[in-house]
């Protein structure tokens, strides 16, 4: 079924490689350097974030390069003026501060932009069915490599499918900011492109005040020490997804849950579970968790783990401003015995475990987060690694419109490295969900069977 990565690369023809800097303005972007907080340092050595947007675009390559590409570049430059740290780098603060890092922007810094065309099957790639993961990965760029002490934060690839569609792929170093900020940046660029030079969606402007993140218990040092210990114990830094070729047997599929199915899950869980906030997130993740555990055939007596990122913006005291630029996520864990999850009502056990984990976030940030990074890193190399969830339907990624209408498909491609699943809003149904998963072909076939069969129970 899946073609090799070399054939995917052979189908790609680079039309242009350039760099785009933030547009000049009467006021120089300030501050030039942003120290990393304890929320940021977690991501210093971790995987890159790869997201792909696919749009209908029934125009030739000549029309695109002459009539559309100049506006894409100029609007990107304008958006980067407001999000200028993304054009910079993450670096050590000084030679004498080995444990201190910062995002640094200097005049002239820029973002790598690759423009390409491909003869890959556009209609195949925008589907929900299992697709070759390598073909999708060819549509996102690699981050340029500098050195260990100066790492770029963002690269972009625009890929034309002549007379059919267009893809815009982003590769971002997670240390720069979280998905909330990145989605705002995507929407800002798209808004500027659609309006040919205006930025109506950048309201309010990003806030770069790092003093709003208070660290009374020095979580920064704890997290940095945990990361360095993990790297030393495991011989190497985890390889970013963009730098590692996935096996050709990996396929990327999208599973959907409509609002009726989600309500059915809530009704089922509420009828038998203990009291907790039975949210869309809880029941949807619980259902997918049970399906994946069944598909992988784990032994009944071992413990399965589920990990997700909790947004701390409103949980901090005082809360951070809505426009705060940076990471504000902390790991949250749920666990249950495989034997409980594979029962017909296993979704109830899964929902209770996830619901209890969320209820446990009501303590202060230091109490809730101390020790969590070391726990997470240990799980990554355990015999039964956790199912990790990334992204959120709250981002409304299908609202990112460059002037070509809503995307036909939005994917998080970096999930292939960890076997994570991604959540997003639905392109088709208000209140629905899309769940992206990358697995070997045989596991994906088993998951499809479990997912579709389980829906008959509610």
UniProtKB/TrEMBL annotation:
What SUPFAM superfamilies does the record tag this protein with? CoA-dependent acyltransferases (SSF52777)
- Superkingdom of this protein's organism: Eukaryota
PANTHER family given in the database record = PTHR31625
**Species annotation:** Iris pallida (Sweet iris)
Recorded protein name is Coumaroyl-CoA:anthocyanidin 3-O-glucoside-6''-O-coumaroyltransferase 2
The alphabetical list of record keywords is:
Acyltransferase, Transferase
Note the InterPro entries from the entry: CAT-like_dom_sf, Plant_metabolite_acyltrans
- GO molecular function annotation: acyltransferase activity, transferring groups other than amino-acyl groups
């Amino acid at each position: 079924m899946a073609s090799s990565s070399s054939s995917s690369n052979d189908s790609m023809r680079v039309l242009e490689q350039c760099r785009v800097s933030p547009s000049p303005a009467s006021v120089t972007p300030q501050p030039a350097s942003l120290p990393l907080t304890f929320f940021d340092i977690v991501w210093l050595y971790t995987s890159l974030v790869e997201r792909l947007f696919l749009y209908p675009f029934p125009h030739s390559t000549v029309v695109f390069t002459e009539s559309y590409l100049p506006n894409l570049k100029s609007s990107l430059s304008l958006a980067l003026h407001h999000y200028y740290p993304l054009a910079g780098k993450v670096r050590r603060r000084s030679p004498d501060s080995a444990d201190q890092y910062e995002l640094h922007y200097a005049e002239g810094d820029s973002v790598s932009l690759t423009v390409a065309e491909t003869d890959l099957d556009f209609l195949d790639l925008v589907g929900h069915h299992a697709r070759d993961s390598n073909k999708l990965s060819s549509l996102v760029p690699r981050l340029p490599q500098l050195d260990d002490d100066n790492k770029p934060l963002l690269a972009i690839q625009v890929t034309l499918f002549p007379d059919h569609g267009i893809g815009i792929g982003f590769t971002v170093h997670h240390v720069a900011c979280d998905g909330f900020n990145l989605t705002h940046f995507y929407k800002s660029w798209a808004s500027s492109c659609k309006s040919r030079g205006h930025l109506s969606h950048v309201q309010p402007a990003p806030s770069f005040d790092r003093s709003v993140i208070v660290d009374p218990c020095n979580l920064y040092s704890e997290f940095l020490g945990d990361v360095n210990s993990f790297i030393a114990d495991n011989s190497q830094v985890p390889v970013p997804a963009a730098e590692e070729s996935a096996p050709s047997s990996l396929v990327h599929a999208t599973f959907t849950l409509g609002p009726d199915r989600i309500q059915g899950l809530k009704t089922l869980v509420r009828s038998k579970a203990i009291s907790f906030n039975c949210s869309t997130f809880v029941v949807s993740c619980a259902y997918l968790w049970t399906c994946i555990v069944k598909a992988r055939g784990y032994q009944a007596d071992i413990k399965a783990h589920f990990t997700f990122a909790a947004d701390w913006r409103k949980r901090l005291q005082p809360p951070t401003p809505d426009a705060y630029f940076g990471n504000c996520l902390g790991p949250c864990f749920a666990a249950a015995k495989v034997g409980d999850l594979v029962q017909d009502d296993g979704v109830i056990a899964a929902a209770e475990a996830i619901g209890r984990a969320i209820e446990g976030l009501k303590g202060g940030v230091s109490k809730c987060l101390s020790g969590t990074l070391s726990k997470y890193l240990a799980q990554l190399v355990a015999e039964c690694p956790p199912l990790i969830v990334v992204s959120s339907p709250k981002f409304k990624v299908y609202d990112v419109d460059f002037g070509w209408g809503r995307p036909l498909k939005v994917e998080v491609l970096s999930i292939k490295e960890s076997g994570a699943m991604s959540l997003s809003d639905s392109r088709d149904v208000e209140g629905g969900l899309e769940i992206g998963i990358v697995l070997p072909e045989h596991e994906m076939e088993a998951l499809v069977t479990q997912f579709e069969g389980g829906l008959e129970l509610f």
